[in-house]
Amino acid sequence: MARSTTTKQKIGWTIIVWTIALAIFFPVIWTFLTSFKTEGEAIANPPVFFNFDWNLDNYKIILAGEANYPKSLMNSIIIALGSTLLGLVFAVPAAWSMAFQPGRWTKDILMAMLGTKMMPAVGVLMPIYLFLVWIDLLDSRIALVVILMMMNLPIIIWMLYTYFKEIPKDILEASRMDGASLRGEILYVLVPMAIPGIASTMLLNIILAWNEAFWTIILTTTSAKPLSAFMVEFSTKQGLFYAQLSAASVMAIAPILIMGWFSQKQLVSGLTFGAVK
Amino acid sequence: MKITKGALMGATAFAAIAAGMNAETITIATVNNGDMVRMQGYADDFTAKTGHEVEWVTLEENVLREKVTTDIATKGGQFDIMTIGMYEAPIWAKNDWLVSLDDMSAEYDINDILPAMRGGLSYEGSLYAAPFYGESSMIMYRTDLMEAAGLEMPSAPTWDDVKMAAEAMTDEENGVYGVCLRGKAGWGENMAFLTAMSNSFGARWFDEDWNAQFDSEEWASTLNFYLDLMNNYGPPGASSNGFTENLALFQQGKCGMWIDATVAASFVTNPDDSTVADSVGFALAADNGLGPRGNWLWAWALAIPAGTEKEAAAKEFVEWATSKEYIELVAANEGWANVPPGARTSLYENPEYQKVPFAKMTLESINSADPLKPTVDPVPYQGVQFVAIPEFSGIATSVGQEFAAALAGDKTAEEALAAAQAITTREMEKAGY
Amino acid sequence: MATDHSKRLARWMLAPSVVALLIWMIVPLAATIYYSLFRYNIQRPDTFEFWGFKNYSYFVTDPAFWISLMNTSLIVFGVIIISIVGGTLLGILMNKEFYGRGIARLMVIGPFFIMPSVAALIWKHMFMNSENGLFAIMSKLVGAEPILFLNDYPLASIIVIVAWQWLAFATLILLTALQSLDQEQMEAAEMDGASALSRFRYLTVPHLMRPITIIILIETIFLLAIFAEIFVTTSGGPGNASTNLPWIIYKVGRQSFDAGGAAAGGIIAVVFANIFAIILMKVLGKNLDG
Questions:
Q1: Element (H, E) at C50
Q2: For a 10 Å CB count at each end of chain A, is N or C smaller?
Q3: How close B262 gets to chain A, by Cα (Å)?
Q4: Domain A62-271 adopts which CATH fold?
Q5: What was the pLDDT predicted at B328?
Q6: Confidence at residue A271, expressed as pLDDT on a 0 to 100 scale
Q7: To probe the interface with C, which of A7, A16, A22, A24 has the most C CB atoms within 10 Å?
Q8: Which chain C positions have a beta carbon within 8 Å of A10's beta carbon?
Q9: Interface of C with A in 43-82 (CB under 8 A)
């Protein structure tokens, strides 16, 4: 680096950037702090930041409560993982074939697939609702797994396609020269190269499925209710109990927030279909 | 899938097996208000008595209505008991969507249900939803302010009395407004109040051929009187005030009068929350000498959707929750002022309950509303502050937005009434009346 | 031989996804078109009948419809502008050298991972509430009248909540893009005496065009369908002030229980989304090539 930053400048930037970053992230910090307060402290005027009696009561209330947080957590995990794995079963072969055997229509098929995402969910709500009533799968995890899988399928196909396209074809040629079987070729050459791409696709899909809040709200009541719907229902009862609401919020967002933070680099290349690296 | 689940749950209910009963888990959709949430706390008593487990889906009023209506109309079968209002009961019963509740046990004493409630929750003479609690509306006023103004509130005032009292009590410099009324748009918010009020002015929503009546003299005088009252003696920003907001204002001593749900009486007289708890008086909602008074009638009631596999267990629950015993259970634990009011005659005959200051006026208010004959001129519908047709909720919410705009000063009364007439005519034409 | 074989294999690998997506799209769409041609209020099974295009004409003559189109567009444009302008500035700032870069960066992109329903709840109750929200408490502390955010500025409030989440997304992508900007070129330009502004204009901006295009495309898909945030905060009100297209369809279908009308609205929304997409591709398409 020809242009080095002086310590003074560095301190200046630190102050500026940290102020902004703290401001942006403040709602989450505030929610986190509030989750350890009593209800009185939560709405205290003037507000209290750290000088309160930290306690875990709100978490205990929610974990023990009739609202059934553990069940919703379980549902969220099953729905997010289920739709992701099912999605991969469909998407990996499709992306693979488009990346390695591109045809005349590959680009158009990709665009058309993304086009299905432009269809607003609310527009097709009624037929899907009635269909689920008909096959008796209303308020079931199976239905949500399939619906969320279909919703995210175009994005994960596209994302995988971008990753697979980056795998150099020469390697295949080389291994073929060495006399590797097709099975060996896939197992020992391609899979290791594809795994990072598949992993970050999984991450993104889990995040999208976990946070989805249209179908989950409308199609569930009790047995399949995931955390997104749990939060909406919880707030109608506890809207004015800020401390409890905060604790529930923290528990609903923490897993994904942490996961997202760990995988941000992979997410960028995936989300932008490789256009940004 | 559902069968295995049921069997599993059944197997875990030891109590039921011991009692040799067929235990089930019933799913109940319910509204998120105080009395209903309190009931969830007592559900253990039900489980202990019958072995049936209960699963709750607690929702905000509008969301609840949307979920249960879609479910029942599409035969979704997600709920075994639904909490519905007086609005839904006759509509759904007409569609054969509900189980009739006429065959309750003798101890349940169906004839004990207040006649006005039973009438509003029945269709063609059969009860289809059991009232959990019922309410009407009445005037709550500040006895201290009335005294200071040298006035006395008649127990059955006219609208002119209300206006006179509002004028006398208004003291804007000290932040006291003569009257607080609902202004927030919604068929269950400002339109509940205005529709009930219009009945006492001789107005009606529809004539006998389902023609909208917002172009009538009676509606014009209703809306003008309301706007005049609110603009001169009401709090600022009233067009976003609903029940909750007005309750807060009254509790803080900022309202001379408040005309709203009878259940509010227990909140404004509770010294823990209300600064004016010891100086609240009650009177019937006002009239104009035409017969009907400006009060509504509402009940939250439990209904069983036709086609549920757990009808027997659901009935047991409905019986338990709306029984005399349940009222006694709550009274024993939380005091008589906290029992669900407005459902049973026996409650009002109970000397313990008669000591509650607002008991008498609540009962008189309920008895003065007739959901089967709400208006001066004949109408083809049932319902006091609503019209029991499926299209009403949508129409009245749009009309409510117009009236709220008039209150906010964005429109004149004439413009709002013309828009209301146009909206209603259009929607009724669309619905094919 | 081998290529033929692998080509056939490739087709078989692609087929399940294509077929599944086709079914996912065509069947509900066809059913929606079917319902849109009938008078079908689920609370009035007795009045079910063929209705031609009447549902459509009722839907578009509803005064709330045009407001909702306007609001939908305002949400899409408002959030995109905030997230791109803000994201570029934040990206440049985050790219400076300062202490604790990793953690500051995590905080800025954090909001993107928050569940929309939770994000809306946090803002509604803990910040925008006119009694106990933090903003109200702050105003009272300085003696000002609390602002009724969701009553007086409902659409702007929703845009803020949504933009908070998507600003994080835009920053994440733009920051990554900025890190790949050619530093030597930058320094050469600086040596040649190019001002900071013209360096930004002629080097940074062109480099960011492609990621910006992608941000716009992705955000548009999600922003046209904003639902949970409105559901949790304003329910489309007061009046129709914060009603967007998904919300009005939801209202017709699930609050007035008019399945036929909602289906017609759904088809109109599909058409609207596609018009939006076509315009976007026309305007931005060239940035995507190459």
A1: strand C49-50
A2: N
A3: 22
A4: MetI-like fold (1.10.3720)
A5: 94
A6: 64
A7: A24
A8: 97-99
A9: none
Q: Is the pLDDT of residue A224 over 70?
A: yes
Q: Which amino acid is at C245?
A: L
CA distance B7 to chain A (A): 15
CB neighbour list of residue A19: distance below 8 Å, 6 or more residues apart: none
Query: What is the identity of the amino acid at B335?
Result: G
DSSP 3-state of C289: coil
Q: DSSP alpha helices (H): ranges in C96-202? A: 101-109, 116-121, 134-141, 149-152, 154-179, 183-191, 196-199
Q: Sketch out chain B's domains with CATH numbers.
A: 2-128+298-354 (3.40.190.10), 136-296+373-431 (3.40.190.10)
Which among B394, B404, B426 has the least Cβ separation from residue C255?
B394
CA C14 to chain centre: 30
Mean pLDDT per 10-residue section of chain B, whose length is 433 residues: 42 43 86 84 92 86 85 88 94 94 91 92 94 94 95 94 96 90 88 96 95 96 96 86 84 92 88 89 94 93 93 95 94 90 93 91 92 92 92 89 86 93 91 84
Q: What is the DSSP letter of C290?
A: -
Give contacts of C 147-186 with B, CB under 8 A.
Answer: 148, 151
**Nearest one of A52, A43, A75, A70 to A244, comparing CA atoms:** A43
Cross-chain residue pair C254–B431, CB shorter than 8 Å: no
Cα separation, C162 vs B141, whole angstroms = 44
Phi-psi region of C200 (alpha: psi -120 to 50; beta: other; left: phi over 0): alpha
- Domains of chain A by residue range: 7-61, 62-271
Backbone angles phi, psi at B138, to 5 degrees: -155, 175
Using CA atoms, how far apart are residues C57 and C59, in angstroms rounded to an integer? 5
Give contacts of C 107-166 with A, CB under 8 A. Answer: 107-119, 121-123, 125-127, 132, 134, 137, 140-141, 164
Q: How confident is the model at residue C288 (pLDDT cuts 50, 70, 90)?
A: low
| Full 3-state SS string of chain B | CHHHHHHHHHHHCHHHHHHCCCCCEEEEEEECCHHHHHHHHCHHHHHHHHCCEEEEEEECHHHHHHHHHHHHHCCCCCCCEEEEECCHHHHHHHCCCECCCCCCCHHHCHHHECHHHHHHCEECCEECCEEEEEEEEEEEEEHHHHHHCCCCCCCCCEHHHHHHHHHHHCEHHHCEEEEECCCCCCCCCHHHHHHHHHHHCCCCCECCCCCECCCCHHHHHHHHHHHHHHHHHCCCCHHHCCHHHHHHHHHCCCEEEEEEECCHHHHHCCCCCCCCHHHEEEEECCECCCCCECCCEEEEEEECECCCCCHHHHHHHHHHHCCHHHHHHHHHHHCHHHCCCCCEHHHHHCHHHHCCCCHHHHHHHHHCCCCCCCCCCCCCCCCCCCCCCCCHHHHHHHHHHHHHHHHHCCCCHHHHHHHHHHHHHHHHHHHCC
Closest CA to A265 of C175, C226, B318: C175
Interface check for C29 against chain A (CB to CB < 8 A): the answer is yes
Structure tokens at B374: 């709400």
> Mind listing the domains of chain C with CATH numbers?
63-288 (1.10.3720.10)
Residue B413 tokens read as 């009364």
* Predicted local distance difference test score (pLDDT) of residue B5: 42
Nearest residue to A218 (alpha-carbon basis) of A229, A233, A210, A208: A229
Chains sharing 3 or more CB pairs under 8 A with chain C: A, B
Find, among A222, A203, A218, A200, the residue nearest to A75 by Cα. Answer: A222
Question: For chain B, which chains pass the contact test of at least 3 CB pairs under 8 Å?
Answer: A, C
pLDDT per position as a tens digit, C123-166: 988 898 777 788 988 888 888 877 878 878 889 999 999 999 99
Q: Which one is predicted more confidently, C236 or A23?
A: A23
